[in-house]
Amino acid sequence: MSKRIPLRLFILRALLCLCGLAAVGTIFVQGYSTFFGAPKLSHQLIATVAAPGGHLTAMLTRISGAEDAGYLVDVTAPDGETERVANFYGVRRNGGAAGLDMAWRGDHTLELRYQRATLARLDQSDLTVAGQHVIVQLKPQP
Asked: Pick from 98, 93, 103: which is nearest to 138 by CA?
């Protein structure tokens, strides 16, 4: 004679089994990407440009390790406060040389100039760093 399991108990057991499988799958994927699949990324400071008043500095960092390099632009203050303002990927100048120029126009406007990019994204275009108001502008060049 077979014993019937109540439907609620059956559903609870099925959910617990699925949760356990999901946890094992997550651990496997994280472990696999850590040891085999995750590219090793390195960060290299490429350039710094101080604002005319010296209160802020724009920093250009290259991230490499994938097929093509990405770039990050941060604005930092002497006290260490830092804000990410832009991300670039696949930046090119004519002739294939990577290039992104940063220039301050006064103490409060930072221009980011490039000729071509696969991705050129402002994270923040109007921000305050250490009490200093900053406007960030993308300037594609012909």
From this structure: 103
Q: Could you report the per-residue pLDDT of 88-129, keeping only the tens digit for each?
A: 888 876 555 557 889 999 999 999 988 888 888 999 999 999
Whether 56 and 90 share a structural domain: yes
Length of the chain: 142
Do the Cβ atoms of 61 and 48 come closer than 8 Å? no
* Tokens (6 digits) for 97: 């040389």
Q: Which domain holds residue 20?
A: 1-38
- The partner residues of 110 in beta bridges, in order of sequence, read 104, 136
Q: Are residues 31 and 46 in the same domain?
A: no
Looking at the whole model, is its pTM more than 0.85? no
If asked whether residues 20 and 60 sit together in one domain, one would say no
Encoding tokens for residue 16? 């617990």
Do 23 and 62 fall into the same domain? no
